[in-house]
Amino acid sequence: MIGGDAAGMSAASQARRLKGPGELEVVAFERGHFTSFSACGIPYWVGGDVPERDQLIARTPEEHRARDIDLRMRTEVTEIDVDRGRVRARDLDSGAESWTSYDKLVIATGARPIRPDMPGADAPGVHGVQNLDDGQALLDTLARTRGRRAVVVGAGYIGVEMAEALINRGYEVTVVNRGSEPMSTLDPDMGRLVHEAMEGMGITMVNDAEVTKLLTGEDGWVRAVATEDGEYPADVVVLGIGVRPETTLAKAAGLPLGKHGGLLTDLAMRVRGHENIWAGGDCVEVLDLVSGQERHIALGTHANKHGQVIGSNVGGGYATFPGVVGTAVSKVCDLEIARTGLREKDARRVGLQFETVTIESTSRAGYYPGASLMTVKMLAERRTGRLLGVQIVGREGAGKRVDVAAVALTAGMTVEQMTALDLGYAPPFSPVWDPVLVAARKAAKTVGQHP
What is the pLDDT of residues 171-194, one digit of tens each? Predict the structure, then answer.
């Protein structure tokens, strides 16, 4: 196993469940200090919602070793020799290198954060947030920085979550975003709702802004983020620009990569054209069940499922991973943001004709205390009425409603069929017509008007 986080160690653990030490030797390489940790939880640790780092660790190296997994920490694989069935690894503490042979290889190298190639990007006070070491480094900076101005570069999931974390830490937060609205995983009209809510929380949003350089003071510490139109003072900068598949090793070994740079696998998560090599997690591309095309989606939910499938197959069992519909949820302070399926531009890109509807409803019966507004946007295929995507922005109770749409997408349901779903109702939980079903009713009428 190359990689000791979600996909790699899930695969190792599942393979070990199926075969004992005498039947299968499991060796795992991890170049970092931690295994099986929740990268998704880092913003909440930085923001103080999660008090201790170790709460984000699902299983320690010692726990893995107790299950007869030969886990080699601080050891980086530097080469894959496909022809001879072996990998070369370097001990990062001693510098010693050695070759290890394999009968079956699992590549779970994850993703690497995008770091801008510009002046000041590596200056002290500039942080990416990819692993627990990164989170600790940022917390150390926040503890010793006297100024209270923070700039977040990027307004995707990591960007908005880190904006919340810094607000919770008492910082004045500016988010600099190259897109027209935050959360490019939403359509711009829904992203606008996020924009307005973030500004209402005291976060300064700067959209349509390309960062050109990070300015430093005489001491070398970052002091501002510069765009073509201005400068934004900063005592700390957090980069949330996104990630790319970490497939440097795979590319050098001649393994097949997709258009997004991720490894290509079959349904069993076996690397295409290679009988004894599997790959999973953030380093692979997956099938989008709605568009029928390959996508790169870096999420722990997928990585853990990939690991279970891979571990079953290398351990002598059988499992497949059919694909995804692109479901994700996030929040910034009390605003919940959710999406699944295709955006408008995704549907256009694959040649689908569609209708969109947008509705406002409440999280509970309107008369019940605590009811809050939410906005639901739904895309349905013209003429057939097949559900294509759903986006939801609202307060408490909004985000997880997207799961109903995710199930409908996976089942290939039409919006007309969705209107008959027997969802739970009581005034504390929803109106008589759940917001998702209100959108489905409106969408069903709309697609019916376009033969």
Answer: 999 999 999 999 999 999 999 999
